[in-house]
C-alpha cells in the first residue's frame, strides 16, 4: 500500500496580507491616478491641448480644474469623465484626433455649481458691465429670448484661440439684429446705449461729441449714426454639411425653433458656425455707406461726397469732415423736404441751418451762412483772376507745366463751387488756396510781372489749426459789439492779434473772454487822428441830431455845451461809462433818478418792440411793407448800437421808438 502525500496547510494569513497590501496599493494608485489625471497639467500631455491649456492658465478660471467645468458635479459624471478621458488617450495614441477639432460642451450645472457662479445671477441680483453695456443674466438664461433658450456657453465661448470663455460679441449681434419672420429683433439703440450712460460718458469727456443736447432734445440716434449694422446673419444650407452628411438632415432646415433647440439648448454649437456674421459699428471713411443712390443714378452728388470725405482735390492732402468721420450721414443735415399729398411722389430732403442748431446749439446756423458768403466771395475772385492768368500765360517755354497747374486750379475751384463748402469748409479752403498757389506759380513760370493780391491767403493762415475745421476763414462782414462796428480782418491780419486774445474754449466754445475795458487799453490811447465818432457813429449821430433815420432830427439839449469827454472822462483822463452821479455833478439832486427813469422807459419800449417784431409774418407782407420793415430794423439796430438806452438824445430816441412800436402794431397779422 502506497504511502499517501500529506498536503501542507495554506498560509491564509500571508495571502491575506499580500492581497490586502495589493488592494491598498491599487486603491492608492487608482486614487492617485484619478487625482493626477484630473489636474490641468495632465491635459497638456497631449500636445494639441497646449493652446487650450495656455488660454486657461492665463484666464480668470486658472484656479479651477478642467473637469470641474467640463463635467457637472457628482460621482456619475466624474466616472464618465474618466471614461471619456481614456477614449481621448486612445485617439491620441492612434492619431485619430487629427481627423477633427477637439470638441467639448460645458453644461450650465458646472457654471452654477457651489463656489462658482452663484444662482443670484439668475435672480437678477446685480448687473454685469461689458464694454460699457449693463447686462443682466436673468432674462437671458431664465426666459426665452426670441423663442430660444440660451445656455451659458451661448455667449461665453472660445471662438478666439487664446481667449478662454470670453463673451463673443457676434453672438449678441446675431440675436439682437437678425431680422426674423416670427420674432422681432431687439435693435433699439438705447437698450444698450442708455441715456444715463451717454450722459455720464459725455460729462467724463470720453466721447468725441458731447451727447447732452442729444439726450435733452430726445433725438433719434439714426439721425447721425446710420449704416451701423452690416450683414444679415443669413444661414446657408451648405453650412449644414460642415457637420452633417445625410441629406435627410435638411428636411427640417426651415424649422428654426427645432434647429435652435437642438444646436443651442441641447448642444453647444457656436452661432457663427451656422450664421453669417453681423457687424455693429460706426462706418468710417466709406462714402458709399452714406448713400446707395448710385444703384440707379451714376455720379450722383460726386462733388458733395468728395468734399465730405475730404478727397478728390488736385495737390491737396485728404482731410475728411469731422462729422463724416463719426458716421454722420446726409439725413443728419438734410432735414427739410417739400410737402406732397402723394405718398409715391419722390421727395428731396434739403439742408437747413436748423440742423446745425439742433446738435450744436442756437446761433450755430449763422456759421453756415458765413461759410457760404466767404466761399462765394473767394470763388468769384479766383474765377476772375483765372481768366486774367490764362491770358497772361499763353506763351512760354514751359507751357505744359503751366497748363497742368491751371487745369488743377480750375478743377479745385469747380469742385468747391459744385460741392458746396458747407460739406467740408476746411478742405474747401485748402482747395481754393491751392488753386491760388497754382495760378501764382503759373505766372512765375511764364515770366509774367502780374501778381495776384497777397491778402487772399492771409486770413486762412491766421486761423489756428484747432479752429480751422469750422472757421477756415475770418468773417468778411463786420460785426457789432458793444455798439461798435468790429472788423476781424483789421485786427487779425493787419494787427496780427491771435484768436485766443479774444476767444476761449475752456468753459464754452468760442466764449468771448475780452471785455470792453481791455479793448479801451488800445483804442483810448492818445491818437490824434482818431475821434469818438470813428467808433461810436450812431451815438454821435443821435447826440448831434445828424441821424438819417429820423426826418428833421434835433440834437440833444446838451449838444451845444457838452462833448463826449464832459460825461465820459473819469479820473486821470480815463474813459468811463457815466452814472447817475455824473448827472448830479452838474445838475440838481434828483437827476440821477431821472436818468434811471428815462433809461427804464427806453428799455421797456425796446422789449415791447422786440416782441412785436417776432410776431410779424414777413411772408405775408407786400413789397411796400417789407421796405417799411427794413427801415424799422435799421432804427432798432441803431438804438442797440448806440448803447446808452436813449441817454444820448432821450426825446429823439423815445419819439422814434414810439413810432416804431405803432408801425409794428399795424404790421401784426390779423386774427
Give the N-to-C terminal Cα separation.
153 Å
Order of strands across the main sheet? 1-2
What structural category arises from helix and sheet content? Answer: mainly alpha
Oligomer: single chain
Radius of gyration of CA atoms, rounded to a whole number: 41 Å
- The fraction of residues in strands falls at under 5%
Shape: elongated
Rounded mean pLDDT score: 78
- Unreliable stretches (pLDDT < 50, length at least 5) are none
Helix fraction bin: 40-55%
What's the main sheet like?
Answer: 2 strands, antiparallel
Task: Tell me the domain tally.
Answer: 4
Tally of extended strands? 12
What is the number of helical segments per DSSP (H or I, 4+ residues)?
Answer: 28
What does the model show?
With 671 residues, the chain is mainly alpha-helical. The chain has 4 domains: 26-104, Di-heme elbow motif domain (Multiheme cytochrome fold); 130-152 and 182-280, no CATH class; 300-337 and 347-477, no CATH class; 527-666, no CATH class. The protein is 46% helix and 5% strand. The protein is built from 28 helices and 12 strands. It has helices at residues 12-37, 40-43, 50-57, 66-70, 75-93, 108-111, 137-142, 152-155, 169-177, 195-204, 212-216, 256-265, 302-309, 322-325, 353-360, 365-392, 399-419, 425-446, 455-462, 488-494, 516-523, 532-535, 537-543, 564-568, 580-584, 591-614, 623-642, 650-666; strands at residues 128-130, 133-135, 156-157, 166-167, 229-230, 279-280, 334-337, 349-351, 479-481, 484-486, 503-504, 511-512. The protein has a two-stranded antiparallel sheet. Strands 3-4 form a two-stranded antiparallel ribbon. Strand 3 and strand 4 (166-167) form a beta hairpin. Helix 17 packs antiparallel against helix 18, helix 26 runs parallel beside helix 28 (650-666) and helix 27 packs antiparallel against helix 28. The N and C termini lie far apart (153 Å).
Amino acid at each position: 500500500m502506497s504511502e499517501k502525500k500529506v498536503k501542507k496547510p495554506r498560509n491564509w494569513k500571508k495571502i491575506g496580507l499580500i492581497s490586502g497590501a495589493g488592494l491598498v496599493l491599487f486603491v492608492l494608485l487608482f486614487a492617485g491616478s484619478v487625482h493626477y489625471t484630473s489636474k490641468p497639467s495632465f491635459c497638456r500631455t497631449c500636445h494639441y491641448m497646449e493652446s487650450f491649456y495656455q488660454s486657461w492658465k492665463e484666464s480668470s478660471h486658472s484656479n479651477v480644474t478642467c473637469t470641474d467645468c467640463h463635467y457637472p458635479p457628482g460621482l456619475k459624471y466624474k466616472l464618465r469623465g474618466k471614461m471619456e478621458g481614456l477614449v481621448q488617450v486612445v485617439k491620441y495614441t492612434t492619431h485619430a484626433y487629427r481627423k477633427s477639432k477637439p470638441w467639448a460642451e460645458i453644461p450650465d450645472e458646472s457654471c452654477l455649481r457651489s463656489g462658482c457662479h452663484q444662482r443670484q445671477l439668475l435672480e437678477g441680483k446685480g448687473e454685469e458691465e461689458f464694454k460699457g453695456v449693463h447686462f443682466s443674466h436673468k432674462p437671458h438664461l431664465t426666459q426665452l429670448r426670441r423663442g430660444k433658450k440660451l445656455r451659458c456657453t451661448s455667449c461665453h465661448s472660445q471662438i478666439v484661440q487664446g481667449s478662454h470663455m470670453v463673451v463673443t460679441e457676434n453672438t449678441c449681434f446675431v440675436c439682437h439684429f437678425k431680422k426674423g419672420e416670427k420674432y422681432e429683433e431687439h435693435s433699439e439703440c438705447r437698450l444698450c446705449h442708455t441715456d444715463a450712460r451717454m450722459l455720464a460718458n459725455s460729462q467724463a469727456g470720453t466721447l468725441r461729441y458731447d451727447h447732452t443736447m442729444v439726450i435733452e432734445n430726445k433725438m433719434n440716434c439714426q439721425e447721425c449714426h446710420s449704416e451701423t449694422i452690416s450683414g444679415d446673419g443669413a444661414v446657408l444650407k451648405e453650412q449644414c454639411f460642415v457637420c452633417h452628411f445625410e441629406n435627410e438632415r435638411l428636411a427640417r432646415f426651415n424649422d428654426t425653433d427645432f434647429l435652435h433647440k437642438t444646436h443651442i439648448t441641447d448642444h453647444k454649437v457656436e452661432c457663427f458656425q451656422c450664421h453669417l456674421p453681423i457687424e455693429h459699428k460706426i462706418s468710417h471713411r466709406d462714402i458709399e455707406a452714406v448713400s446707395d443712390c448710385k444703384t440707379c443714378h451714376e455720379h450722383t452728388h460726386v462733388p458733395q461726397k468728395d468734399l465730405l470725405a475730404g478727397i478728390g482735390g488736385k495737390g491737396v492732402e485728404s482731410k475728411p469732415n469731422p462729422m463724416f468721420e463719426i458716421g454722420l450721414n446726409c439725413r443728419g443735415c438734410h432735414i427739410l423736404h417739400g410737402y406732397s399729398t402723394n405718398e409715391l411722389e419722390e421727395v428731396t430732403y434739403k439742408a437747413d441751418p436748423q440742423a446745425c442748431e439742433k446738435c450744436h446749439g442756437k446761433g450755430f446756423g449763422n456759421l453756415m451762412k458765413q461759410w457760404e458768403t466767404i466761399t462765394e466771395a473767394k470763388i468769384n475772385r479766383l474765377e476772375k483772376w483765372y481768366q486774367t492768368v490764362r491770358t497772361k500765360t499763353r506763351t512760354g517755354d514751359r507751357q505744359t507745366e503751366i497748363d497742368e497747374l491751371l487745369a488743377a486750379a480750375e478743377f479745385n475751384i469747380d469742385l468747391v463751387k459744385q460741392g458746396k463748402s458747407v460739406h467740408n469748409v476746411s478742405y474747401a479752403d485748402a482747395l481754393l488756396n491751392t488753386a491760388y498757389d497754382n495760378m501764382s506759380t503759373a505766372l512765375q513760370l511764364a515770366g509774367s510781372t502780374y501778381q495776384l493780391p497777397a491778402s487772399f491767403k492771409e486770413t486762412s493762415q491766421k486761423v489756428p489749426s484747432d479752429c480751422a475745421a469750422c472757421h477756415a476763414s475770418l468773417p468778411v462782414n463786420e460785426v457789432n459789439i458793444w455798439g461798435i462796428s468790429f472788423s476781424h480782418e483789421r485786427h487779425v491780419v493787419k494787427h496780427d492779434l491771435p484768436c485766443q486774445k479774444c476767444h476761449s474754449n475752456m468753459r464754452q466754445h468760442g466764449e468771448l473772454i475780452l471785455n470792453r475795458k481791455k479793448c479801451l487799453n488800445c483804442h483810448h490811447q492818445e491818437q490824434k487822428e482818431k475821434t469818438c465818432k470813428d467808433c461810436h457813429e450812431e451815438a454821435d449821430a443821435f447826440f448831434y441830431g445828424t441821424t438819417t433815420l429820423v426826418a428833421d432830427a434835433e440834437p440833444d439839449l446838451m449838444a451845444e455845451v457838452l462833448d463826449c469827454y464832459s460825461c465820459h472822462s473819469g479820473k486821470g483822463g480815463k474813459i468811463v461809462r457815466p452814472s447817475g452821479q455824473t448827472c448830479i455833478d452838474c445838475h440838481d439832486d434828483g437827476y440821477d433818478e431821472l436818468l434811471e427813469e428815462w433809461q427804464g422807459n427806453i428799455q421797456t419800449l425796446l422789449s415791447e418792440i422786440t416782441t412785436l417784431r417776432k410776431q410779424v409774418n414777413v411772408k405775408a407782407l407786400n413789397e411796400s411793407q417789407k421796405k417799411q420793415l427794413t427801415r424799422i430794423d435799421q432804427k432798432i439796430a441803431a438804438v442797440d448800437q448806440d448803447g446808452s438806452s436813449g441817454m444820448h438824445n432821450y426825446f429823439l430816441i423815445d419819439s422814434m421808438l414810439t413810432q416804431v412800436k405803432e408801425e409794428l402794431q399795424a404790421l401784426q397779422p390779423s386774427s
